[in-house]
Amino acid sequence: MAQTFAFEAAMTDTDTPTTWLARRGPALAWLLVGLLALVLCLPLRYTSHAELSFEMATQPAPAVVRGNIQLLSSRELAFEVARALGPVDTKALAAQSTPLLTSLWRRPDGDEAALMNRAARTLAEALAVSAQQNGRALDIAVSLPDAARARRVANAYAGALLTLDASVREGADAPRDPAPTLRLASPASSARMPDLPSTGALVLLAIAAGLAAATTLHLRRRPARLTGAVVHNALPQECPSDRRVSWLRSTAGGSLAPDAAVDRLMDTVGSAEKSDLVILTSGDLPDESAACSLMLARRLADSEDQVVFVALDGEASILSRLTLDPRAPGMAELLFGVASFSECIHRDVASRAHLIPPGRDNRSGASVVNAERLTLILQALRQTYSRVIVAAPGLAGTPGAERLAALSPLLIALHEDTTGAVEAYDGLAAKGFARVVMLPLNFADDAREADTAPETDAALALPVPSLMTPVQQPASHAA
């Protein structure tokens, strides 16, 4: 049997994604993380600490501590520190207050007052004063890009506050509650290691690094483009055919009874694409195939409009009794061109379907299948009816079956469960039928004996009574 396989591309372990983003994306992501780290961490800053303590055994008053902290953070003391540092440090501190981009096009102001203002602003931003030891000491922290300058500024702040405190004490006239005396507990020293980035900068760097890692993993795990060559000796080859075959069986895996078979065919025909022409055939069950095809047409007519049943197999006994008049025109007259469609199409009294009986000259086999006008008749019926159900003789090995296959019908092949279904399908596939449904039938013994029962005048007995309703009224011709 013909099977359809898909091509597979062989790739080596060295194949990588070929898109530019997949190749350069991880490097660009980590480059951006590095640039962000440089912006957040540069310039490096060094912090120097100078400590002042109060010369008293008890804890000083909170107002005294707050007052000294405010003095250290004041702008006036920053000017005193700037004047005490000297012109070199003052110019360096003033240069730090000017943005980098602004300094590229704007000349620095040479006025001494403006220079002192910028230096004082830099000192105020670099200074951090905090109380230590429950207010018994004051920590003066100065953070600058130059470690030596940070040490000098911290010591200058401590010296300026001590000088101010001493001058206030000398000029005071016997104060009632003298403030505790300040002394230099620990002078500032140059820091050897730069300060760590702030908490906000570290969090931002962690988020950026996480996004870069996720981007790298996503791009690396993308499936590589299939660019390898197909190894024809190792892979299955695609069969250049659109043939499809379905094998219908019961839930237990066995054959189906006629009623169950028709139920399965209703689902198959209703879901199949382009199933306006359905041909039922059988090489070993001609009567059962004809009965199932008639029952299928009647079941379809209950739910659909414009259903016609065409009896091609004149040797099937059930098809010769579709109408009360055995001489009614049918397919034989259409094939020979001696009758029109309006004369050969009859109404079914058991359903809303239309019928075309075998005709006066019951023909079967190659004499019907190989007729030149058969394909034209079926094409005309397809253009008029939504469903054309054809009860055909055995088509495997029958001359002329190729022309029926050219109409692309849905072919339903009924067979006995004991016969070789694969060989039967091969015979149909050799004729060119692309869509085939293989259906095994299992008739009871009494149903088979009903075919040999004599006919009575009261009612026309059928080979399989469960598959059709007895005809009791003469059929009228379709207009």
Automatic annotation (TrEMBL):
Q: Which GO terms describe its cellular component?
A: plasma membrane
Protein name according to UniProt:
Uncharacterized protein
Output the Gene Ontology terms for molecular function. protein tyrosine kinase activity
Q: Which domain of life is it from?
A: Bacteria
List residues traversing the bilayer. 27-46, 199-219
Database matches in SUPFAM superfamilies: P-loop containing nucleoside triphosphate hydrolases
Q: What is the native source organism of this protein?
A: Azorhizobium oxalatiphilum
For this protein's source organism, the top of the classification is: Bacteria, Pseudomonadati, Pseudomonadota, Alphaproteobacteria, Hyphomicrobiales
Region ranges (Disordered):
171-190
* UniProtKB keywords: Membrane, Transmembrane, Transmembrane helix
